[in-house]
Amino acid sequence: MFRNITPVVQNLLLINIILFIVSSFIFPVLNEWFALYYIGSQYFKPFQFLTYMFMHADFWHLFSNMFGLLIFGPLLEQFLGPKKLLILWMVCGVGSGVLYSGYNIYRMNNLEAKVERFQANPDPEYFNKIVLENRNFFDRRVFEFVDDFSRDPQDQVKIDRANQTLEAISDIQGNIPMVGASGALFGILIAFAMLFPNTQLFLLFPPMPVKAKYLVLFYGLYTIYNVLINNPLDNVAHFAHLSGLIIGAILVYKWKKDRNSFY
């Protein structure tokens, strides 16, 4: 496997691994600087659209992305050429960050509208609905307060506390960073499936062969499912994965139409 590694894949692996080591053990503030934040966050910087894709939350996050690059990247680099593989990786990674940021703006605007609606009409049931949608941020004390608020909805002290809780939700949601090369990797996956659709891949779990086109189709449908259900307990940026698939598919479709662009 390592004997067949190609130059761009090798350099991407090295950059990601080195930055993970540096940000984990030497200069941890890089995790805050280079992660991608909501555009309205005080921590947001434009360069994060590029840097976030070279940062990872933990070893297994890094391993899964780099393993995928190592498996699918070399053959794509041999077929497309180093320049096009790098373009694919970077455009899908940066593009995923941009599209996810747009999605995040929609989510934050939706949350802020709900908070404003509650402030205009402090209804305990509506407060409980917002809390349930963001329940991964709270412990049982908040749910005990929900019951207490429901029993005395006119108490101004309780209304003020409910408003503070919702403001805390907005602040937390607006400052959750996104990291990882998953968007770029999903661009690699869709490119591989489009260019080598009938290539047999052997899965580890479950141990069985599957064609590339079916594997990527499963990932795509699974990603769309997770975007639609929007599970508040799921901290994976599924919309960024979907964005990588879409951008990668558009790029490869364009390149396949212009056969002269291959080299």
UniProtKB/TrEMBL annotation:
GO cellular component: membrane
InterPro entries on file: Peptidase_S54_rhomboid_dom (IPR022764), Rhomboid-like_sf (IPR035952), Rhomboid_protease_S54 (IPR050925)
Subcellular location field: Membrane
Transmembrane segments: 12-39, 59-76, 85-106, 184-205, 212-229, 235-253
Keywords from the UniProt entry: Hydrolase, Membrane, Transmembrane, Transmembrane helix
Pfam families for the chain: Rhomboid
Keyword Cell membrane set for record: no
Sequence ranges assigned to domain Peptidase S54 rhomboid in this UniProt record: 47-102, 175-253
Source organism superkingdom: Bacteria
Membrane topology: Multi-pass membrane protein
GO molecular-function terms, A-Z: serine-type endopeptidase activity
Family stated for the protein in its record: Belongs to the peptidase S54 family.
PANTHER family named among the record's database cross-references: PRESENILIN-ASSOCIATED RHOMBOID-LIKE PROTEIN, MITOCHONDRIAL (PTHR43731:SF14), RHOMBOID PROTEASE (PTHR43731)
Protein's recorded name: Rhomboid family protein
Species in which this protein is naturally found: Algoriphagus ornithinivorans
